[in-house]
Structure formats: C-alpha cells, structure tokens
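Quick one - inputs below.
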Amino acid sequence: MNAEFVNPFITGLLNVLETMAQTTLKPGKPKRKQSEIAKGDVSGLIGMVGPQVKGSLSITFDEELALTIMERMVGERPDTIDGEVGDMVGEVVNMICGNAKRDLSERGFEFGMATPIVVSGKQHTISHQVDGPKLIMPFHSEEGMAHLEICFDK
Amino acid sequence: MNAEFVNPFITGLLNVLETMAQTTLKPGKPKRKQSEIAKGDVSGLIGMVGPQVKGSLSITFDEELALTIMERMVGERPDTIDGEVGDMVGEVVNMICGNAKRDLSERGFEFGMATPIVVSGKQHTISHQVDGPKLIMPFHSEEGMAHLEICFDK
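Output:
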C-alpha cells in the first residue's frame, strides 16, 4: 500500500471536515503495525471490492469531536451520539471513500464501495481482518481524536 | 429482498455454529423496520458489492455467547472478548458470507465480498446506512443472543 493510494483518503478526510464543519484535524504519525487498533465512540465503516484487491476503511471519532462536528454542521449540539450523529458519520465516510474512488479510478485503480455501516458505543475498538497492509492514521483536534484506518488484503 | 436471497445467510449462520461449535441457535422473528438496531458486545461486519446491488452484513453476539462459541471451538474459555475471539467472529462472518455468495452465484446473483471488520465494545450498536431493504434477524440461545443483519441499497 503506497502513499499514492492512501493519500486520497487522508486528503478527503481533511477536506470534508474542513468544508462541511470548519474543523481542522492535525494528522499524526501513521502506524502500520498489525497490533494497532483504533478506539473511539462512533465509527463509520465501508467495504471496498475491486478486481485487483479488496479491503475496508474506517473512521473512528471520539464523542466530543463527533458532537462538535455535528454542531458545526447543523447549528445544534446533540447531548450524546444519536441516530443523526450516526448518519453524519456514515455520510462522512461515504464522501471520503467516494472522492478517493474517483481520484484512484482516474489513475487506473478501480474498486466498488459497499454501503456504509455506523457503529456507536463507548470506547469500542475496530479490527480490520486482513493479511495485507494496514494503515492507522491518528488525527488530533482540540475536541478529540479521530482515527482513519485503511486495509487491503494484499 | 426476498427469502431466496436471505435464506442462504440464515442457514449459513446456523450451520457454521452447529458444525464448528456445536451451538444451536433458535431463530426469532425477523424485523424489517428501519428503526431497529442490533446491539451486542462483539460484531463481525462485511461489505458486499455486486453489479446489481451493494450492501452489508453484520453478525452481533452477546459476550457470553461469543465466549461459549470460542470455548467449544478451541477448548478453552477466554475471560473476556480478546483478539482471538475477534478473529473467530471475523472468520464466522467470512464463512457465512462466502457460503451464501457461492449459493447465490449458482442462482445467477453475483457479488464480491470486502474484507471483514470486527467491532468489540460493551453493548455497541450497529446501523447499516442503506435506503433499501433491511432485515434484522434475532437468534436465541441459552448463552445469549445473536443478531444477523443484512441490508441492500435497493
């Protein structure tokens, strides 16, 4: 998994949150260890299936950050992670993956996207079950952390 | 989403747990409401992408049931949901989806499977983000509940 492939996802996350929620995330150091796991309170997950590879993508937010993004997008802050926050997270992961898909398709790398799944629950962990490369990228903000994870089966 | 399409997944779950872990699940009443959500302690999720449709599948287990399945498969009961239990859940969802894929392919319905993702966390909820049909199927056992959820975008 090279930078050319991963960058559209990272750029997508930064752009989407900047544009939709005036929220600037600061990228941390990417981690490639199989043992690393993303932890947070609400996650958007999406599967990818292409002729060459298959894989999965997840974005996990701390509750405070998710609520702040929601507040900046709709003008009102929910008390807790509810269905609307979940829908927002599903929409964000869908947009990021969709943008990256278009970008990579132009470079001859094709994949289809499954429908997004949203997971809510205090400090849940996400483990992508792949033998291939795995990248976890932490993002910092004043309101909490986000973790982007991208994995492929080869 | 008709029974012909859903049944291979349901049969798959029952067969896999019966064969691998001598565990008999009792299917409950399927629910089709968009508002229903699956809740549990460990889930296996997988995305599906086909030429006609895309969708997602999840299987969510209560902790007690997941630990019992693990105990019956490997002969030792973990104290809690650890990485090995997660791998087992990922493998179960992969097997069920793989069997259903073969079965449905023989009937002319093709889809590709993304790589599985496992979520761990006390009483997390799963929300499949689709506009199309959604089926949640509860399964009962003495050791706890499992929920199978299958969704497609049309």
